[in-house]
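Re: weekly structure request thread

Next one in the queue (222 aa):
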Amino acid sequence: MDRSDWAERIPAVKSKADLAYESLRSAIAQGNLKPGDRINMDELARSFGVSKIPIREAVKRLESDGLLVSRVHAGVTVAGIDVTEMRGVFLARESIEALIAGLAAQRVDDRQLAELDHVQAELRGALERGGIGEMAELNSRFHRLLAGAAGYRILRDLTEQLLLTIRRYRIAAPLGERNWRSVVDEHDAIMAALHRRDPGAAADAARAHIGSQAAYEVEKGQ
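Done, posted below.
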């Protein structure tokens, strides 16, 4: 057994800073902490039952992620999102999603394809019964699975970061039923290409999907 084999078997132990980071990141992603909200580190330390040291570590990581900002006299607050930045996010996502879908069409296995089919069916089911509130998380699951099928951790990490930014933006400017229907239909085109194992068609479908969403999202935010 080489080192990589046994290293992967050692369970990861999360530090207090890790747990604080994940909890704050989740609160930001879900909109429980909104742009401009102030982060009270003393209060957080009491809430988590820890010293301020792991809270400071978590805050520094979130600042590096662009989710928190620290300003003199204003303290630490949740970062805002503007339309100019969202244009950049969608440009990056268009290229990355096309790359991911093309790779996934070459590498996806039957289990991964079945999982993607299942989530896509859940998305369409939620849409048809008016469960719009469920769709953001289902959409994120779809794109996480797609990134996983591409086979590279860096693409999974980039997808996660971009999805978080998109979800934060959509909390302030949520998608309506008409646009969610477009999302689901565009996913269908990606899935059809994956089933055919057609990398070019998968990349084109993913690029068209993100381009369509970018046109709607950026225009909506202006």
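Strands lie at 68-71, 75-78. The CA atoms of residues 17 and 57 lie 6 Å apart.
Next request, please.
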